[in-house]
Amino acid sequence: MDKLKNILKFAMTLEKQGENFYNFYADLVKKEENQKLLQNLAEIERSHYLILKKKYDELYFAKELHDIAWVIDTKKIIHPTIFSNAADHLVPSNDEDAFSDLAIMRIAYTIEDDFSNFYRTAAEKITDKEPQDFLLTLAKWEDGHRELFHKRYTELLKASWGSFEEMLL
Fold first, then answer.
1. Residue among 53, 96, 47, 93 at smallest CA distance from 73
2. d(CA 69, CA 45)
3. pTM for this one?
4. pLDDT higher than threshold 70 for residue 163
5. Which pLDDT score is estimated for 77?
6. C-alpha closest to that of 119 among 147, 140, 102
7. CA torsion sign, 143 to 85 to 134 to 44?
8. In the chain, what are the domains?
9. Per-residue confidence (pLDDT) for residue 102, from 0 to 100
10. DSSP class per residue in 48-97
11. Per-residue 3-state assignment (H helix, E strand, C coil) for 125-169
12. Rounded to an integer, what distance in angstroms lies between the CA atom of residue 123 and that of residue 129?
């Protein structure tokens, strides 16, 4: 139980840092569509934090592990596909602003990859099936976020490639 409690506590820290990162950089990216994307992901990370905090509080107040509801209410969760569908309509630009957005999207991709890996690794360390499934669900959500940022990063990279190509020739 202490292992699970520590996993949840660390996961809350990760999700809060992700939320803070997205909120901070949403104000710094140049493109409005990237700003909205980061704002939306900040909201999603906030919802993840609240889910984890609820589980942590249930453990902290000494409920038995089997009394904790490990089922996630998906009706209250914002799924990343909402934003990935909207991101499909983004038009990559070939201007200098794309370079700063490119770096931020790359970092965001890395953050989501780290979250996914953390949840999968944590699930391997837990022997109880319900908490394992809970952590694996979180990992899948982070996979969706990672793919969203990877797609946007790739689009921005391709749009910027013309500039790189000119510098190389």
1. 47
2. 20
3. 0.71
4. no
5. 53
6. 140
7. positive
8. 2-168 (1.20.1260.10)
9. 87
10. HHHHHHHHHHHHHTT--GGGS-----GGGPPPTHHHHHHHTT-----STH
11. HCCCHHHHHHHHHHHHHHHHHHHHHHHHHHHHHHHHHHHHHHHHC
12. 9
Q: Which of 121, 148, 123 is nearest to 45 (CA)?
A: 148
Residue pair 89/158 in contact by the 8 Å Cβ criterion: no
Confidence band (pLDDT; 50, 70, 90) for 74? low
Residues 27-68: tens digit of each pLDDT: 988 889 899 999 999 999 999 999 999 888 887 775 555 555
Average pLDDT for residues 103-131, to the nearest whole number? Answer: 92
Give CA–CA dist 34/115, Å, rounded.
21
Strand locations in the chain (E): none
Structure-token pair, residue 23: 């909120």
129 Cβ neighbours under 8 A, 6+ residues apart? none
Region label for 62, one of left (φ > 0), alpha (ψ between -120 and 50) or beta (otherwise): left
Residue with tokens 């009706």: 75
Place of tokens 């909402």: 82
What is the per-residue pLDDT for 130?
Answer: 87
Q: How far is CA 130 from CA 9, 57, 90, 97, in A?
A: 18, 17, 38, 45
What distance lies between CA 128 and its chain's CA centroid? 25
